[in-house]
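Repro:
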Amino acid sequence: IIYIEKKQGSKQKYGFGISYAKKALNNVIQADKVNEFVNYLERFIKTMKDDLDKQQKNANDIKNLAIDDPIHVWHKGRQPNYYKSEGEGSSKKKA
C-alpha cells in the first residue's frame, strides 16, 4: 500500500476533520452514547491543550536560550552613543 500525502491548508484539514466528526456523531446518536462521546472529546481536548502548552513552553525556552548568549551584536543604523561632530550637518537640505 502506498500512501501519498498532499500538503493541505487549514480549510482542507478542517473539512476532513468535520466529515469524520459528523460520521462519529451519527454513530454515537444511533448507539445512544452521546454522553460517553462528549466525555471522550473533553479528555481529548484537554490532552491537546496540555500538549500545545508544552510545545509553546519549549519553543519559548529555545528562543530564550538562543538570545541569552549572542556571539556578536550587529547594530542597525547609527552606532550607540554616536554624536555628530560640528562639521557634520544634517542630511536635509534647507531651501
